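Worked problem 6 (solution included).
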Amino acid sequence: MEKAGHETAPSKQATASQTLVRGLDIIEAVSKDGAHDIGAIAERTGMTYSTAHRLISVLMQRRYLKRVPGKGYRLGSKLLALGFQAYSQVELTAVARPFLERLAQKTSDTIHLACEEMGAVFYLDKIASRRPVEISSRIGGIKPLLSTGVGKALLLDGSIESWAALYDADAQRLGLTGPREQWIAMMRDYARKGHTYDLGEDEQSIRCVAAPIRDASHAIVAAISVSSTTDYMPPSRMHDLAPVVMEAARQISAELGG
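Solution. The predicted structure is:
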């Protein structure tokens, strides 16, 4: 029998979900020509004044909303940044797609386009191999930066200190072996050459060659890779594919002004 005053796990989840939905309701209400005051937001969303006030305070702290003197509440800088990020990803995928298709036609292997999202690889596009090969990645999926070819390509502009911190944080969890200094030396070599490999760190039987994509500011914004199993990707072929992948990445970068 449950004790009075104690929420069960499902009820806590329901409360959290309701809070999230109400926060989104507020953002959507403000997005329609703004809102002069909390009372107007409460009326539009059907919330009590106190609930609207509490959620608006949090949204302002996180920069999802802002208050403009004389005008009231408007969408904040965080939403603007996320909007630009979402738009750039859509644009990037559209720009890159023809080059990915050519790379797939040339290699017959699995092709990936990915970017970094919250410290992880986020797959924006994938073209499946024409060989009898299955790779576990999927569009919209995430994987670790540390162990994937595209992840390492996204890290190529990092400092030795940032690489070391990432290795210390994630290597043991991912089951990577070998001293940190060895991994950093590998990353320095990749940075010098302009491409990276996945040598089975993510999936033991998978190998890939990856290269970074840069925007007009020369910053790395994404990466592409060619992936297959060890049967189709011996070291000699990986070596031969490196300039091919780098050239495709360079062409996509040029389309982005890089």
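Discussion: The first helix runs from residue 9 to 31.
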